[in-house]
Design brief:
The chain is of the alpha+beta class and 115 residues long. The chain is built from two helices and seven strands. Strands 2-1-5-6-7-4-3 form a seven-stranded antiparallel sheet. Strand 5 and strand 6 form a beta hairpin. The longest helix is centred in the C-terminal third of the chain and has 12 residues. The termini are close together.
Length: 115
């Protein structure tokens, strides 16, 4: 990742023990690639249009569930045989202040992945 891309980030990224799933479907939980207070990066087999809004559940290590609405801000194809078909960036649009506070407390105890 270029120096310019790193400097564009408003929030540092973290590798945290948090999973996600679609809030609208009873789907299996999947690990995040990374997370910040501004959004998440996930691997997905689904192709999304940029700007698509998704209802997401973040499942914490203690099984507490935080709900939010996010939008797709970028998506890149991954090589065949990889973890998934796409590497996808989601920006939080709507997350309650209580959930954001809880997320902030968790991330304060994690190591940043901004390297």
């Amino acid at each position: 990742m270029s120096e310019e891309q790193l400097n564009r980030r408003k929030y540092p990224r973290y590798d945290a023990p948090i999973c996600y799933r679609s809030a609208s479907l009873f789907s299996a939980r999947k690990p995040l690639v990374d997370i910040s207070l501004g959004g998440i990066r996930i691997y997905s087999d689904d192709e999304f249009k940029i700007g698509k809004r998704l209802d997401i559940e973040l499942i914490l290590a203690d099984d507490v569930v935080l709900t939010c609405t996010a939008k797709v801000v970028w998506q890149k194809s991954l090589p065949d045989g990889g973890a998934a078909r796409y590497d996808t960036g989601l920006q939080f649009l709507d997350i309650s202040s209580d959930h954001l506070t809880r997320l902030s407390e968790i991330l304060e105890n994690q190591d940043s992945t901004n390297d």
